[in-house]
Amino acid sequence: MVAYLIAGLVLIILSGFYLGQTRAQKLQASQRLHSLPVYHGYHVALWCAIPSVIIILLWFTLEPIVIQSAIKSDLSGKLAGVSETEAMMLMTEVKNISQGITGLSTEDPQIIKAGEAMASLNDASRTSMLVIILAIAIGITLYARSMISPEFGARYSVEYIFNGFLFFSSTIAILTTIGIVLSLFYESLLFFEQVPVTDFLFGLKWYPQIAIRADQGASSGAFGAVPVFAGTFLIAFIAMVIAGPIGLFSAIYFSEYSSHHTRTIVKPILEILAGIPTVVYGFFAALTVAPLIRDFGMSLGFTVEARSALAAGVVMGIMIIPFVSSLSDDVINSVPQSLRDGSLAIGATQSETIKRVIIPAALPGIVGAFLLALSRAVGETMIVAMAAGLNANLTANPLENVTTVTVQIVVALIGDQEFDDPKTLSAFALGLVLFFVTLILNVIALSIVKRYREKYE
Amino acid sequence: MSESNPMAGSNSSFLKGRYSAEKRFKLYGVFAVSLALGAVIFLLFTIFSTGYSAFWRTEFQVEIQFNGDYLGITQESSDQEVREANFLGLFRKNLAEQNNDVPRRELRKLFAMFSESAADDLREMVITNRSILGTTQKLKVLASSSVDMIVKGQAPREIEEKRRVLNDFQLGLLDRWTAEGRRSSSFNHRFFTNGDSRSPELAGLGGAIAGSFWTLMVCLILSFPMGVAAAIYLEEYAPKNRLTEIIEVNINNLAAVPSIIFGLLGLAVILNFFGLPRSTPLVGGIVLSLMTLPTIIIACRASLKAVPPSIREGALAMGASKMQTILHHVLPLAMPGTLTGTIIGLAQALGETAPLLMIGMFAFVVDIPAGPLESATALPVQVYLWAESSERGYVELTAAGIMMILIFMALMNSFAIILRKKFERRW
Predict the structure, then answer these.
(1) Is residue A126 domain-shared with residue A232, that is, in the same domain?
(2) What is the pTM of this model?
(3) pLDDT in tens, A288-316
(4) Nearest CB to B265: which of A180, A380, A434?
(5) What's the Cα-to-Cα distance from A227 to each of A195, A209, A223, A425, rounded to whole Å?
């Protein structure tokens, strides 16, 4: 049915364009038009397309609401006096029957009847939508075509709509940000209704088990996120210990020592690291690096857990090397040449120039680069999901396993999701914290880098 | 500071110290770069050396007598009747007759050396060609994953029987068949055509490739027009005011938001609020398009900025309206750069895993999805699923899946580079 609708609509829009254009062309033969015929065509097509699409979207949003309430009033006898959850389950059953999914359905004739009623309502709704929308589309097309006259400024209207589309597209970024903030806040509020904010932010125990029996409440799990935050920063810290020096020294080498030739060959190879999907690093960490570190640690007499923080951190460090190196490279390159020349002229060696002049001059920018890399490490998901632990463990020992914010989000949302269960909702509270921490890191880093750039411009 | 007077160059041991410090410092740089390069090489080497073997599968030659009486079908039987016939029984009967030295109680171990798909393959042969009934054919039948692992040396052979994937009896049979020349290996075409499977020897990437394809298509259809439109607005129309500034800051920040947050957005808004179907490429594509949008906007703006103002002025002087100037003259010149950015953005989207996990695209999908509204999984998610699986046979599949992702990404990126080299104009 929907396919017919789309096909019919496309056909009407295309013929609208054709009708508009040919009519304008006919007029053009005898007199001078305000707008080119093609704009009259676009005008008719847009007049047809925009209202139809809006009606279709409205229809799809309202249809389930209207049908559900109709069915609910039919079933009012059955629904009276049952709890909200039971009512929801009954409605799901009705929906399953209406979609022809049987097997787990009940024998209750009233429910089956309601399901059949829903199916016929759905059918009726879709058929009437097809008829109504196609009729409206044809009507509007004919009306828009009748508007064509030599004086009519079709180009103005088309350009007006075009500009509106451009502006709307540019606001998608804002809408996305608003969507992220609102959805995270909303679900987090639901979570904090069940778990106090202070418990979440300062509690030391994280056991988000699902309630196994119905009478087990939210109290069965503990949602103190401190061990989760600590684990996240432990792994991010290990990553920075690896990526910081390697990235910075690579950047110094590329910008101050290497020949142009080496730079053009070697630098792109390093940048490959930034393009490799994170799931690849996760596999690499779990398959190769973790056993290597474990065997090495064992041979030295340490106890190393299979999913140690060190393995995840080292691999994450490798992943962010190119972020540190290319950002630092940019920053070092924007230090004015006159500073180098001055230092070299008074007899300093190149390394002394770098250590005493260039690095201090570039320091704010380098700090910014490190912060951006840190934010990347904090938000990274797949490496830790595959190589770090699942159980929250408050420790600073990199050989033990720790868990991270992103791992806990994945754990909470893979599998059954119940949006009244604190386990599922905790993912959104963790996501909210993650969003703000990375946002703050980014804002600070970007403003440092920006101020630094302005200093030398 | 002991070195406070660098002019004291007459002291030769002091100079020597400074020069060796210089050399050391440069060495640190070389060391750092080689460490990073070593990491790239080690990573790629690990993946490729683990994964290449997945493209081959072990087979055994078996003589199958297509006994129509046993199956209860004739040349004239309908496809339905053939589908219901007992091909597993036929296969096992043939195996048992050919290996009549195998005692009855060991037969089960013999059967376990072959893949579950053997009976289905025989059935397909009869469905496509009825005249095969009544004949005896020498066929190559896919071995089970355990046999494959031993043959490829990925499961250890020289350990005690209990911990080995094949028992002594099966190992003996394998060696005997190898000596008789009945073992062979062939290209694993199932890896490219099959969906996921619970048996490693049958699992393939076909479903995931189709899922990724639909997801990227949705992503492209949504993010390309939106991204180009936003870039045109910001570069050509936007007044310098507070709103424009907010939009620009937002775009830069979106590019740095962790990908898993987009997954949460998709789950809360697109699935729960708008009620779009879970696990589908449609939802995956919408979420990925939000992530790709900043990349496209930034690339398109840079290309628009590179078009010299004389082009705009020329078009305006000839009487073109602003929209005509942009659509007919400026945008076509900015297209190569924009397309390059779009392809690079799509290549990134191809590798994204976390947001797709959040919206449920990790379902066990056997069938290959035929459209963006069917349950599907995507390449990196399939790799994640295999990597999390405990069975040994999935390790080489995981690595081979990663090889496929890397190959697709390399192809997309080189296409983008060629496009830029060929069409980009320098003014």
Answers:
(1) no
(2) 0.87
(3) 898 888 888 888 888 777 788 888 999 99
(4) A180
(5) 17, 16, 10, 18
